[in-house]
Amino acid sequence: MESARILAALAVVLGLAAPLAGAALAQSSEPQSIGTFDNWQAVTFEENGKKGCYITSKPTKEEGNYTQRGRAYVLVTHRPADKSYDVVSFVAGYTYGDAGDVTVTIDEEQFDLFTHQDSAWAIDAVTDRDLVNAMKKGNRMVVKGKSSRGTPTTDTYSLSGFSKAYQAIADACPH
């Protein structure tokens, strides 16, 4: 249930799912950039009268034998009013398969995520914090998943600028 709430909220923020968002979309303001830091964008938004922040990046390299794929990206979201921080999510640009495990490798550290439709999430808040800490220290992040059609994909993200972008949302949406 929590991941469904987060998915719907992120869809509102990104304007990707107006049918899912319904009335919430009408109550949300347009996201506002607070800076670009190398490969990362820091953003604030308002949702149902509550301020939130996220940082986002897209892969620097996408690999896989697919014929059609939507946009892939990663988000780290803060929602101070909900006391929710460091929520990491990956959007694949396709629907994950039934055994939708995703592996994230940051330098030499590996994390296993679960999937729901086109998104992958950490299993709990501790893993989210561990992911964020690894992203702060790391240079490169590799995300491996498999589509519902069985197509394996590998997305590589640069972590250049992550720490500065993260600090920007930490300042805009403090704990």
Runs in which pLDDT lies below 50 for 5 or more consecutive residues are: 1-26
The CATH topology label is: Immunoglobulin-like
The CATH homologous superfamily is named Invasion associated locus B (IalB) protein
Give the total of domains. Answer: 1
The largest beta-sheet arranges its strands as 1-2-3-5-6-9-8-7-10-11-4
Note the run of SSEs as H and E: HHHEEEEEEEEEHEEH
How much helical structure, as a percent, in the residues? 25-40%
**Structural class of the secondary structure composition?**
alpha+beta
Residues in β-strands, percent: 35-45%
What's the alpha carbon Rg, rounded to whole Å?
A: 15 Å
The CATH architecture is Sandwich
Number of contiguous helices: 5
Q: Please tell me what the overall shape is.
A: globular
The CATH C-level class name: Mainly Beta
How many beta-strand runs? 11
